[in-house]
Amino acid sequence: MMRKCSPWMFLPVMFSLFTAAGLWVVYFIAVEDEKITPLSSEYKRSESKSPPYISIAGNAPPASCVFSQVMNMAAFVGFILGVLRYLQLKPRVQKPWLNIGSLAALSLACFGMTLVGNFQLSNDEELHNIGTSMTFGLGTLFCWVQSFMTLKVNLRNEGKRAGIPRFLLSGAVTSCMLLYFALMAQRLHMHAARAQWALVMFFLTYLGTFAIEFRHYRFEIVCSDEREPPLSLSESFSEVSEYQSDQL
Hints:
Blueprint: H1 10-32, H2 54-57, H3 63-89, H4 96-118, H5 125-153, H6 159-185, H7 189-208, H8 211-214, H9 233-247
Helix pairs in contact: 1-3, 1-7, 3-4, 4-5, 5-6, 6-7
C-alpha cells in the first residue's frame, strides 16, 4: 500500500519553480528591451547593452516591476520554508543553536532578497549590494548547515538520500559564488553573469529538495479559546509529528 504524501511537499517545489520562472521572465523582458546582452552572446564594452547580471536585468521598468514582485514573494515564501524546516527539526536536534542559527541565516538572507528587489542597482547601489551579499553569503551558510543537519538528524532514515545531494548542491553554490566574485574582479562580465545565474538556480534547487522530508509531515496552526491554554505552532507540530510517526 502506497503512503499518502503530504501536500506540504509541493511548497518547496512550487517555490523553486515559480521563483526561477519569474527571474527568467525578468531576463527575457530585459533582453527584449535590449537592456542586457543575452547570456549566449559575447559582451562588448562598446555596445550600449549591459552584461546580463540578474540585478541589471531587473534594473529598469518594466522588468524592474516584475523583479521586485518576484523577489518579495520569494523572500516571503522562503522565510516560511525556513520556519517550517526549523519546526520539523526542533524535536530531534541535540544542538538547538544549530537549528536556530540556520533559521536566522535564512531569515536574514530573505531580508536581503527584499533589499535586492526593492532597491534597484541604479537607485541605491550600496544598499542593493548589501542585500546581494546577505542573500548569497547567508544563503550559502544555510545550505551547508542544513546539509550537515540532514545527515545528523536522519529523518525517516532518509539522511543520506537527501543529505548527499544537498552537500553536492552546497558545493555547487559555493563554487559558483567564488567563481562569480573572481570573474567580477577580472572584469570578465559575461562569465561572471553566467556563474551568478548558475548560483541562483543551484540555490533554488537546494530549497526545492525540502520536499523530500516535507512529504511525511503536515503543519497546522491551532486557534483556541482564551479560556483554554493556547497551543503554539511548535507544540501543535510536535503532536502531529508523533501522531504521524505512529501511523506511518
